[in-house]
Every structure is written in C-alpha cells, then in structure tokens.
Amino acid sequence: xxxxxxxxxAKLQKEAISMKRYIALFIVTIVALTxxxxxxxxxxxxxxxxxxxxxxxxxxxxxxxxEGADVVKESVASGETIRIDQVSEDYFVEYxxxxxxxxxxxxxxxxTDSITIEPGFSAEKLSSLYTVEKTAIMASMKSKYKDINELxxxxxxxxxxxxxxxxxxxxxxxxxxxxxxxxxxxxxxxGNSWIVVTDPPLPLINSYKYDDMPQAVAESINKQLHP
Amino acid sequence: METKPAIxxxxxxxxLILIGVATLVFVVYVLFSRVGKNEVEISVxxxxxxxxxxxxxxxxxxxxxxxxxxxxxxxxxxxKTDVRPIEITPETDRIAFAIRPKNKLGEDYLKDNPDExxxxxxxxxxxxxxxxxxxxxxxxxxxxxxxxxxxxQYAIDYGTTPDLDNGAFVLIGNSSTRGRAEAVAWLxxxxxxxxxxxxxxxxxxxxxxxxxxSERGY
Lengths: 227, 218
What we know:
heterodimer; A: alpha+beta; Nuclear Transport Factor 2, Chain: A; 2 domains; four-stranded antiparallel sheet; 4 helices; B: alpha+beta; Immunoglobulin-like; four-stranded mixed sheet; 5 helices; 11 strands; about 25% strand
C-alpha cells in the first residue's frame, strides 16, 4: 500500500517535471517567434542602400525630423551599404568635396537602392572658367535677343555645374508697363556654342520643364528673382 | 483494477501545446508576410484578366504589396494587353486595371457579361480618384486652388496633363507684373517648390520675343 502511494507520488512528480518542460518549451518558442518577428519585420521595412561618390572627402547620411535632421551614419564611404527605411523621402547626404569641387547636399530618391553623387565645380573654379567663356556667352545672348541690352540689365551672371551651364537674372529697364518682370535666363554649352535653354526667359525658372537642367541652376536663379 | 484511459491528460496537454505552437507559427507567418506592405484592393476588368505587377501575377481582389515603382501588364484573351508603370506609395489602397476588347472574342465576352460594364465605370472612378488623391497628397496646395488674390492682382489655378509625372501644373493668370511676383510668393508660402514644379504664366508676354505686344499689353 505504502509502495503504491510512493510510486503514485513519484509518477505525479515525473509528470509535473515533464509538464514544466513543455511549458518552458512553449515560452521559449513564443519568445523566439516574437524576437524573430521583430527582427524580420525590421528587415522587411528597411532596405540596403548604397552611397557612391567621387571627388568627395566626407559624406554624412541624415534623416529629416521634426527638430531638424538626425545623423543616420557619419563618414559614409563610397560604395558603403547602409540599411534605411523602405520608402522614405526624409534621407539626404551632406558632403564636403575635394578642392575645385563644391560642397552640398543630395536628396535620396525613396524608390531607389543607391545614389551616385558627383559634385559640381566650386564657385572659384567656375568664376575662373567664366572669365574665359563670358565673351562667347554674351555674343550668343545678343545674337538671340537683339534688344536685350536695351531692355534688360544682366545681373547675377555665373556658370554652374562643370561650367557647361550659364544662368543670369535680367532686370527690366524698358518702357513696358504690363510686362516689366525681371526674368531668368539659362544657357547651355553644346559643343563650342552657347544655346539659350529658357526661351523666352520667364519670371520663374522651373527645372521640371527642361529635362537636362540641374535643379540647382533653377533654384539659384529663382532665389535671386523671388528672394 | 485501474483501466488506462485511451488518451492520457499528458497527451492532451502535449497536443494542445502543439496546436498552440502551430497556430502561433501560422499567425506569425501571416503577420510577417504583410509587414511593410500595403493592403491594396486591385480591381481588374474583365474580372478574370491576369495582372503582373513586378514579378507577381495577381487577380482581382485584395493583395499585400510592397511600396515601390513597378511595371505592370494586364492581359486576357480577346483584349488589348495593357503595359504601364505604376507607383505604389505607402498610402495607395486601390488600383484599377481595365483593358478593352481587341477582337470579336472580347466583344462577345462583354455582351455575355453585362456586369463588366459596371466594373469599367468603377475602375474609371478608382483611376481618377487615386490620381487626384496622389496629386493632392504630393501637392497639398492644389486643394486651395483656384485662388484669386483679395486685391485681384492675380489668379492661380491648376490643370492636369498626362505628359507630366505628377500630372499637374499651376497656371498664374489675370496678373500684372506685381501680381505675378505676389503669386509666386503665395505659392512659396504654401510650401510649393517653385523650382521643381511646372508653373506657367497665362498672360506674360516676353519683351524679348514680342516687344510690341508686351509694351501694348494686349
């Protein structure tokens, strides 16, 4: 009788230990699945993004936030791959360029997996190139618009990018009452000739309308026209 | 004499635990397969057409799609195959693909299935609604247009065109020189990127290309 009670107790203890083992296994499974879910979720909501560049000494990846911008990764090397959110318009790269090239920022297209940054020439380099090109540019402008010097004063004239883009604002000095707007003029060097891109020059330049025109050219001119 | 039950309580517990784990794995799998994706209702006309979005082949119904840019193909026997790019943003919840008959087989199908007419109308509605929604999401200022300045110096309206990616342009009209400058300032105040949006002038005449008209004003 005593033996029977002992063996029953031993059996119950054994079953209890076994049950504890199953409960432990269940908890471990839940924890593993939850951890796996969050890890995999992270991978599904983010993507690998590669930053490529040349003529740049340092690049930093930022994400815009309500307060301004948060550093995502400092000192991004060319060819480096970073995990960022899948479809976000908030990322941009701020870069410092080598000599003769301009520092700047480049927005990241939310639907691409890489960016290639090619900084334009520095203001000093463009200024020295402009002294060489100015005569040809003015001659081309005058040949396209015969009255230009009579109607407008050319201001803020400068080269952009690698010296193949020219932009200026034209300040009206003629007699028109209805159309005395100051306008923006953009030219592009094709081969050895300077061609007017914004024909006619308008009170606002939008790069959207001109496929090849770098947005920085339009932005710079519009800033002068509409401070 | 003690009879041994067919299934012991321990076996029941093990079974329940296994069912629980299997259910959990299934739930986690379903949840995981939808993470980072949009629930998108895809309407296809005719209803049994096949749509290929990227590398996924889909049919009419609700699907989970990752936001991004895709090339799509919609095809069905007797109908013109439609190939077009689409953009699924995190906000996209409905897309319609409607193709038209190209031969008698397609025309006969529509005659035999008059319900498809209603589906064409619904698809057209979804198309224009989602286009309009995408436009106003991209350019919230469009909700404020048309706008006429209180002193009547300028008016701003917008138009749509399939030539542009975003399908919209802004038109500044009824304006003087001062009005045009104020219109641009108004657009800037309303967060419009003036350098990267198609902004047109209705009544500006360039003195460089038509000096007489620009000075006369008409």
